[in-house]
From TrEMBL:
It comes from the Bacteria. This is Heme-degrading monooxygenase HmoA. The keyword Oxidoreductase applies. Residues 2-96 form the ABM domain. Keywords: Monooxygenase, Oxidoreductase. One of its GO terms (molecular function) is monooxygenase activity. Gene3D superfamilies: 3.30.70.100. InterPro entries: ABM_dom, Dimeric_a/b-barrel, Heme-degrading_MO.
Length: 109
């Protein structure tokens, strides 16, 4: 498995607008091979921003890389630069290969 994360420093006054962009977009992730799960995370508040992260789980790094080159990726990101700035700078990407997964057996059906 592979986890792809982007960290965003969202301007304090733009939190609702930033969240709305994500909540109303057509990600098309479900059309792409290897996509498992997506999360939008809101983190701690800092002096001049609130930390957010997009967190996507993929079957493999190859599947993630294929997504970044796909028509679905281009369509999902086509309007990304048309809005007023909602963040301090560009997102910071971090990619991780999963080495170990521990699941709670009590939560299995």
């Amino acid at each position: 498995m592979y986890i792809a994360m982007n960290r965003f420093k969202v301007l304090k006054d733009e939190q609702k607008a930033f969240e709305n962009v994500w909540l109303t977009r057509d990600s098309r992730l479900d059309e792409v091979k290897g996509f498992i799960e997506f999360h939008l995370l809101r983190g701690p508040e800092r002096e001049d921003h609130v930390l957010y992260s997009s967190h996507t789980i993929w079957a493999s790094q190859e599947d993630f890389l294929a997504w970044t080159k796909s028509e679905q990726f281009r369509a999902a990101h086509q309007n990304a630069g048309e809005r007023k700035p909602l963040t301090l700078g560009h997102p910071e990407f971090e990619g991780f290969e999963v080495i170990q997964t521990v699941e709670n057996p009590k939560l299995r059906g």
